[in-house]
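User: Fold this; tokens only.

Assistant: Input:
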Amino acid sequence: MNKKIILLFLLQGLFLEAQDNKLTPEIFPPAPTSNSLMKFEEVPVSYYTGVPDINIPIYNLKSKSLEIPVKLSYHLHNIKPQDRATEVGLGWSLIASGSITRTIKSGPDESNFIPSTQGGKAQIGIYFDEFTNKFIDKNYAATTISQIENGNLGDLSNNPNYGKLMYEAFYFNKFDTQYDLYQYNFFGYSGRFIVKKDSENKFYVEKLDVDNLEIKCNFDSLFVPISFTITDELGRKYIFDVPETTNLTYTTERRGLYNSNTINLSHGTNTKSAFHLSKIYDFNDNVNPIVKFNYNDPIEISFNDVSNITRNRLNYTSNTDEDVARQSEGSLPALKEINITNNTIKIRHLNNIEIPGQGKVIFTYTPGREDTDYGGRNHMYKLESIAKFDNYDNELSKYSFNYDYFRYGNKIKLKLDNIKHLINNQFDNDYVFEYNNSSSLNFGIDKWGWANCATSDLDRNVDINCMKVNSLKSIKLPLGGLEVFDFGPNIYSFNHKGEPVTSLEENIINNGNIQLDKSNITNFKSLFTLDSDQEVKFDVNAYGLDGIPWQIRLYKDGILIDDYIGNIAGDDVYNTSPIFNLKKGIYSAKLQIIQPGFKYNDYINLYSYVKEVKRYDYKIGGGLRINNIKYYNSKEDYLSRKQPSRNISYEYSLPTNENFSSGSLVFPEPFHSYDYSYSARLIYPTSLSHSSLMFNSQFNLISSQNLYPVQKTKGGDVGYKYVKIIETDGNNTNNTINIYTSSLDYPNLFEFDLLPPYLPVGNYDYKRGLNIDNIKKDNYNNTLQKINNQYQYNFEKSKIIGLNILFGRNSEFEYLYASKFDNYNKYIAFCDTEAPNIFCYQKRPEYFLTISEEKEVIGIAQNINTKTTEFLNGLELVNNSITEYNGTNKLLPSKNTTTNSKGETITTEYQYPQDWAANNNVMAQKLVEGNRINEPLKIEKFNNSILLSSTYNEFQEFNGVMQKSRVFQKKGSSSIVEGDDVIAFNSYDSFGNITQYTPKNGSSVSIIWGFNGQYPVAKIEGDTYANSITKIGSLLTKLQNGTLTPSEENSIRGLFPDAMITTYKYKPLIGVTSITGPNGLTEIYEYDSAGRLEVIRNHKNEILKTFKYNYKN
């Protein structure tokens, strides 16, 4: 996950500790300077996973203390066949606010409902433990988790609460045994947490990531979540209280061993599944939000998730067993299981973003979509436009979104075609998107979940061309430039253990691939030449021939041989990969259609793997990565095949052998099928009572879903240790080599289960994807710079987030008769005796059921040493930086020591509020209470061991909020004392803005704020804030709103004959439009339709400077 980690924020927004003694508040807008607009902005790429970060910026809104980007983001992993298009099209997401999403695991934590329309036992959520009185039966899952974590679980074999939990959770789904997972994503922060309840029925958050965020939750009396408040490390509060609800309906269709069909329907209840961000408060104002997010009323959408399991029975028992088995068919494994989950969600679309005092951005949607993977498509919405309005509801600009659809087979998905920028509803410029073609293709799915264009659901092979379907091909930029993306398949040479991969014949590049069509019924098709006798494996895709008898006849040196490939029986599905021992020679083939009169107009793909001609020591899988990005000055240059103005290529092979990929898996390859033995004791009635016999069978199970739990490394399936970036710009070529930590260095500590059920293991991904070396080389391959990073890994803990109840893998046979006993107590009454009931298995469920913990690994990697080496004219200039981290807050440095090539050493030490709070410092404690923990209270600099300077920040309460009151500085080795203060902050307004400060030995400076406290509109040097407000009097409101006439502004200046006054005017959401200095002269700033500075004029309206935005490479 992407994390926003602020390692050092020295002096928060108000002043800088700098060598030029720049200590006055940086709150006044400087004269605007040219925005360096680049036609070909480099697309940021996650080199470790090969996934580009493709964004379309719409607006960048600025509140007083926070930037709110409004953009579209394209993610390569959101275009797979089972992915659904958002309101802005397949692969694209609107990034404008933030959300906390909730993944229900096992059952909702607050669950207290009956899950079936036909009745049934209530599912008891994990919150309804022994400290509640909702149910007579208590859910002991939370207590069990706590006991396991604390190491005091005790003797489980005689613990009735433990036995009841296992028995009734496993057989009746009565108890929820896993905490729901919450995931947040907003403004660069992302992470996960669970919510627990204590013995006093109070709720609290347990984070599953190491960060500086504080998360609080609000639940109602029914244990239902209402809202969440996240406080960042600067004390800003983000309120998530706009819920979305989801209702799930489960339909299971089951075809038994003897072809009986049953359908079961189960309903859930409305569950809050997401919480959207509604407000942001600055640390100094809990009343007036600095940003508001408003949403439309809920809109109901629905879609189905379908999965299935097929079992092929590999052998049969005796006839007597079959007769008894027919009577127990409903309890035995089914030949076919189809599970349909209908998701009905009441979604909330973002309506507008409001920055009080500045304006708002409004999002408009239109109903009616053709997407086939949603129900009620007429009620599905797409984003129509995003428009920016000033504080007086005047439209400043608008972006219009236009769509088409991806169409393939019977599938239709929304496609973003272009985005037009409009000024006064007139066209200004646009983005235009092109995608890799998807028409006339069938969409099968490979084992990784990507498209493979196969016609059979059983064909899970990777198709390197088909997986690119629907992926982004190019973006035409607003002023004509073109970005062209070349995506290719992920490849890897190492498995999740760091071992070289095997079964290289699965790599299609290592296979001879030919197509046979109707012409090859009479004409030979060349295959390959063998220089020696060897085994050859064949795989076949026979398009359009299901159920039709056919064969491929093999010829050696033109002579028919006995070996052939084919479906002579005309089976519905051909799923065989024959291996032949072939002699040295030249091989060819012919196609034969055995069914008379059948006209075959399609083709057969034949793959042959010649083992002694191995070409590449890697396998293909895990979707797409970026191979190349080309930048053209225009689309015409691209179409006319001109050289790109800039070309960036990415190589992922091992530096020692290009036939090996540096890619490795973190988790095993997906798999969908396995063989297993099944045994069960079947009970049947006799004339006297009941008797039993054993049912034994072998099955092959095929699942539509990956049987391993889906887990990723930094969001991808493959992580690359070595990535070389080759950048060509004109005649210059530069190389950058990045080396990362990966599973080759840090595989997971625990092996995956080899037998079902396949459970997740702890993911130590915090150790991976870290840049170890960054090496830059010039056009002649000379090394220019090398940056080496060293890390230490702080393993925090392994957190149990749930329990999985399992049937004992060492048990002799499956137990089918738990339903004969309504609950655990009845089982014990009948079975824990010397002569147990025939329907019992063992005396106690604890003997044949077991618990497996599901864990999340929580850890952090700390960069402890960065060594930078510059190579200049044969010299090596080395700068070495060693960082030690705060003991309480492991993200913040406590000491940084820098040594250069001359041996000069500078050490900087930092002390934070949490350090001082531990010593009962009231000021520090109040800062910590507000989570304002990143700004150091004290900074000391040393040359070797000699103290050079000290800085101390003092805080006190203003309007009930801790604000900076003074800054002390001292040079030399003596301690800071009273009188060493260099600036005092005298007063703040109700918005938390500084209204007066006084530099040491200087005059007071007053600041008047306008636009709802967003912008400073006047600076008065030489008078107090109280005097300034009194003197301005009735003109204050017009000054704050920016509506003063020139004569009124001049009259204000006349009120301060002994002070210097500077005034500022603004165009909200754009920037400063004029600055009038103490001499009364005004500089005017004009902007173009995109909000970029265009002209600077003086007080005589003469043009001082113009800006032309020619895109550059």
